[in-house]
């Protein structure tokens, strides 16, 4: 999409959201190399970096760090942000030069299952469906408290 915009003279931006586990696959790096080669400043890759994948941690499966250095080596403009801080994310997205020649990589540090006691940092919640009781507990833990 980013290359199509460039080739047709359109000004839209392209965003790709990927998980850190997906970056263990070579096709992602082929795409990154292509984005840098064609100088797709209109492209932004946002990595949900929580250190977990389907069944284990990234470190125990196939380490991808130093992730920022890898994107930089491919020619990306690299930034890290707290992926749970929406204001910081919006500020960062607003600050990027989408008319430049460098594609952007944002490494959004997150916690899988954040805010739900039994889900935090647990890889099985990549694919597990909560029971009705678990769903109720999760909603209760994520709901703002009654401050009255």
Pairing-aware structural class of the strands and helices? alpha/beta
What CATH calls the topology is Rossmann fold
The major pleated sheet works out as:
4 strands, parallel
N- and C-termini, Cα separation = 50 Å
What does it look like?
This protein is α/β, with parallel strands linked by helices. 34% of the residues lie in helices and 17% in strands. The chain has a four-stranded parallel sheet with strand order 1-2-4-3, with helices on both faces. α2 links the parallel β1 and β2. The chain is globular, with a radius of gyration of 18 Å. The mean pLDDT is 95.
What topology emerges from the helices and strands here?
Layout: H1 2-8, E1 14-19, H2 26-37, E2 43-49, H3 58-61, H4 67-73, E3 77-82, H5 86-95, E4 104-109, H6 132-142
Parallel strand pairs: 1-2, 2-4, 3-4
Outline:
This protein is of the alpha/beta class and 148 residues long. It has helices spanning 2-8, 26-37, 58-61, 67-73, 86-95, 132-142; strands at 14-19, 43-49, 77-82, 104-109.
Give the tags:
34% helix; 17% strand; 148 residues; four-stranded parallel beta sheet; Rossmann fold; alpha/beta
């Amino acid at each position: 999409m980013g290359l199509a915009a460039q080739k047709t003279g359109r000004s839209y931006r392209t965003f790709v959201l990927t998980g850190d586990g997906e970056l263990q696959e070579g096709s992602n790096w082929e795409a990154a190399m292509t984005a840098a080669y064609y100088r797709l400043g209109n492209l932004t890759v946002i990595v949900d970096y929580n250190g977990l994948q389907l069944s284990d941690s990234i470190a125990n499966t196939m380490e991808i760090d130093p992730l920022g250095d890898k994107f930089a080596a491919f020619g990306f403009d690299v930034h890290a942000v707290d992926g749970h801080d929406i204001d910081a994310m919006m500020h960062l997205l607003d600050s990027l030069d989408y008319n430049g020649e460098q594609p952007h990589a944002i490494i959004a540090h997150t916690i899988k299952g954040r805010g739900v006691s039994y889900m935090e940092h647990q890889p099985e919640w990549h694919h597990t469906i909560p029971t009705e009781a678990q769903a109720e507990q999760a909603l209760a833990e994520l709901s703002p408290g009654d401050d009255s």
